[in-house]
Amino acid sequence: MKVHFKIGIDLGGTKTEAVILDRSGRVVHRRRIATPAGEGYDAICAALYTLVHDTMRHLPAGQPCSIGIGIPGSVDAETGCVQNANTTCLIGKPLQRDLEHMLERRIGMENDANCFTLAESRCGAAQGYSFVFGVIMGTGCGGGICIDGRVRRGSHAIAGEWGHVSVDPCGQDCYCGNRGCVETKISGSGVEAAFLKKHGRNLRMHEIAAGYRAGDPPCCSAFEQFLDDFGRCLGGLISILDPDAVVLGGGLSNIDELYTPGVERVRQYAFHRRMHTPILKNRLGDSAGVIGAAWIGVPA
């Protein structure tokens, strides 16, 4: 049976979004709910089950659909359990299997950064590029790889997970068990934690950026370090993968300085004197993840 409608679910740390795409890829229904992450795994399963059922009620009568879910982690191919999830209550849980049992149908499940990268590659800022590396810089830091419009997962389902490459053995502890991971350096939570430790002020990332622009010395110091860490981390990644384009997403992708002095720092650290890799701001905004999730969906 040919599927004309696609349901995508983007499970985030604080919000979960659902969309329906029609046969042309147009969003015909959208809904967001709060993610009950603090209430544990069973509450998340129940919320996803209810959201899927509520979303399916908006399909035309009798029309089949596919369902795909993007999660802040990945599904281990050997165990079928979630691994490497920022929402730590998911780790070690058979989320896909449990939801398929509850829904009595098959679903697709993919890392949220992969969903983001897929959407931006197919119809967003990176459209037309063959090999795309997608970066999500928000509360955490994730990445995904898309080659010729298809997600590259890797044999361990961790392809693109640059957020947990340790770049500073003397750096901050990371929830993954290592120290000084990329995520501790250039995510919002990482920069904020470092600022609090050094300056004793509890500022959010947007406040640190505003302070930098206003000339506040502690904010200037922290923001310059952020730009330098961004350049070092992304420059090293480009030296390894040499993608055709990099597309940035997440809340921090709205920081204009990433595309000016930030790009210059990337050029400084990349292993090429004339690095010309486009570093692009996302075009689909925070809808990229849920649209990508719809495209990885599996028919019933």
So, CATH architecture of the largest domain? 2-Layer Sandwich
Structural class: alpha/beta
Distance between the termini: 10 Å
Q: Compute the gyration radius: what is it?
A: 19 Å
Number of domains: 2
The biggest beta sheet is recorded as: 6 strands, mixed
Quote the average pLDDT: 93
CATH class of the largest domain: Alpha Beta
Quickly count the helices. 9
Beta fraction: 15-25%
Order of helices and strands: EEEHEEEHEHEEEHHHHEHEHE
Taking pLDDT < 50 over at least 5 consecutive residues as the criterion, the unreliable ranges are none
What does this structure look like?
This protein is an alpha/beta fold and 300 residues long. Helix content is 35%, strand content 21%. β5 (74-75) and β6 (82-83) form a beta hairpin.
Question: Could you list some keywords that capture this structure?
Answer:
single chain; 300 residues; alpha/beta; Nucleotidyltransferase, domain 5; 2 domains; six-stranded mixed β-sheet; five-stranded mixed β-sheet; 13 strands; 35% helix; globular
